Amino acid sequence: xxxxxxxxxAAVMPYITAAxxxxxxxxxxKVRDAVVDKASNAxxxxxxxxxxxxLGRAESQQAIEGAILDVxxxxxxxxxxxxxxxxxxxxxxxxxxxxxxxxxxxxxxxNEASGTRSIAIGTNSGIANTGDGxxxxx
Length: 138
Hints:
The chain is mainly α. The protein has six helices and no strands. The relative contact order is 0.16.
């Protein structure tokens, strides 16, 4: 199975970001725990499992851990740095890339909004507006 490394690295980001956001600076401690907190939602659980597998690669563990801590601290552009480190780890280890790709939920859809007043919409049957003083008529 050939794995699209760029697509796989991008696809893991929502899950890993959810786990890092949920756990903050304790992310690495939480990932190492054997039991995922029962209160965690499905996305955080997937992120936990993905991080656990990705951090199992000793050659990239330190760089990824550093990038995770930067994301948890809210450092600017830290998400892009983490994605790059994950992509490098996937590129260096085809077994890891295959395992990570297989761990992703089937049919994953990812909508990402970036920037001031951005909206991420999968499907919309109504009005979406982020402007000031908008008026809508039917």
